[in-house]
């Protein structure tokens, strides 16, 4: 049996919880029994897959102490990798316990020293096609913003940017995500009440969030750091163009020459990019659509499954016997 550990609730509909649940399903499809937990609590396991090097460090150490010969895989998130693992508080000794490391986009390897990079796999997050529940509203240019309200997401940047748009702009931001920071949550609520172009709806069921995304004209990502945002995979699967802060985690997914970047933290540049996309200035919106359509095969679930099959193969694990019935 393989143990998958993820920080936070294992049934979360966001972030690490979504990734862990999807990976558990893939590993089961590959012929292995899986237990999904938010910590290591003892037990007989053939291997450990741990999401988040820093937050899962205690689980990695305890697992290795009990199973010194069992392989460990550590998946590194944005807050592990950026601005760099040392500054992020990742213990190098924990990384040395891993047989393999996983990053979610190619740039992540460049954050690691050469010895670690050599045993690091890139597994981009997948998403099945998402169909829009309805055509985009003709009277608005809806921009989807799927992000928890916490500092690393720079969650108020988009609300500030839409205040700078011309009076005749039809841009309307719909923001879904829970408040993880009390002060930022209060600020987002106040902004939502006083800014007619910004609507923060708080946490919503995953299906509702995906439907909102698929019915939008654009996805915005304003993060200061990302390891490889799952929401970009979701937007590509929903055929919704993306604008994003020019951070390594997004550049690794979308490419260095992607036309939809703005400097992280630059409100005026974000407002200018929103306006250019809305008005299709110099064909920007169509270029974003075409580029995202070309990137869509990267999030094919079959691609992620093949990457995981290759990873599991390197661990040289026996397949689990079928469960007793």
Question: How would you describe this protein?
Answer:
42% of the residues are buried. The longest helix is centred in the first third of the chain and has 15 residues, at 15-29. This protein has helices at residues 15-29, 57-66, 78-81, 92-96, 114-118, 157-162, 182-194, 206-214, 230-237, 248-254, 267-278, 284-295, 301-315; strands spanning 2-5, 34-37, 47-51, 72-75, 100-103, 120-122, 141-146, 171-176, 198-200, 218-221, 242-245, 261-262. Helices cover 37% and strands 15% of the residues. It is elongated and about 65 Å long. The chain is built from 13 helices and 12 strands. With 325 residues, it is α/β, with parallel strands linked by helices. The chain folds into 2 domains: 2-126 and 300-315, Glycogen Phosphorylase B (Rossmann fold); 141-299, Rossmann fold (3-Layer(aba) Sandwich), CATH 3.40.50. The mean pLDDT is 93.
Keywords:
325 residues, Rossmann fold, 2 domains, six-stranded parallel beta sheet, 15% strand
Which helices and strands appear, and what pairs or packs with what?
Blueprint: E1 2-5, H1 15-29, E2 34-37, E3 47-51, H2 57-66, E4 72-75, H3 78-81, H4 92-96, E5 100-103, H5 114-118, E6 120-122, E7 141-146, H6 157-162, E8 171-176, H7 182-194, E9 198-200, H8 206-214, E10 218-221, H9 230-237, E11 242-245, H10 248-254, E12 261-262, H11 267-278, H12 284-295, H13 301-315
Parallel strand pairs: 1-2, 1-3, 3-4, 4-5, 5-6, 7-8, 7-10, 8-9, 10-11, 11-12
């Amino acid at each position: 049996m393989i143990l998958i550990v993820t920080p936070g609730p294992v049934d979360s509909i966001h972030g690490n919880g979504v990734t862990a649940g999807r990976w558990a399903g893939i590993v089961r499809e590959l012929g292995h029994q899986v237990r999904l937990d938010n910590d290591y609590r003892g037990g007989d396991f053939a291997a450990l897959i741990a999401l988040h090097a820093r937050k899962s460090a205690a689980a990695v150490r305890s697992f290795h102490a009990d199973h010194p010969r069992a392989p460990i895989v550590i998946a590194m998130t944005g807050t592990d990798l950026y601005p760099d693992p040392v500054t992020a508080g990742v213990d190098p000794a924990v990384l040395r316990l891993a047989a393999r490391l996983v990053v979610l986009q190619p740039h992540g390897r460049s954050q690691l020293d050469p010895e670690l990079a050599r045993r690091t796999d890139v597994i981009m997050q997948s998403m099945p096609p998402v169909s829009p529940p309805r055509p985009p509203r003709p009277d608005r240019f809806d921009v989807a913003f799927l992000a928890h309200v916490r500092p690393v997401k720079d969650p108020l940047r988009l609300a500030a940017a839409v205040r700078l748009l011309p009076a005749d702009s039809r841009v309307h931001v719909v923001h879904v995500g829970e408040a993880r920071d009390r002060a930022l949550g209060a600020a987002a609520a106040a902004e939502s009440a006083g800014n007619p172009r910004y609507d923060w709806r708080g946490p919503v069921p995953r299906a509702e969030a995906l439907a909102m995304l698929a019915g939008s004209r654009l996805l915005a990502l304003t993060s200061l750091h990302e390891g490889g945002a799952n929401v970009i995979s979701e937007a590509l699967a929903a055929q919704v163009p993306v604008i994003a802060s020019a951070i390594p985690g997004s550049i690794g997914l979308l490419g260095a020459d992607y036309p939809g970047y703005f400097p992280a933290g630059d409100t005026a540049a974000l407002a200018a990019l929103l306006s250019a996309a809305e008005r299709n200035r110099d064909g920007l919106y169509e270029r974003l659509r075409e580029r995202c359509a070309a990137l869509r095969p990267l999030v094919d679930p079959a691609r992620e499954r093949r990457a995981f099959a290759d990873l599991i193969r390197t661990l040289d694990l026996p397949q689990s016997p079928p469960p007793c019935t």
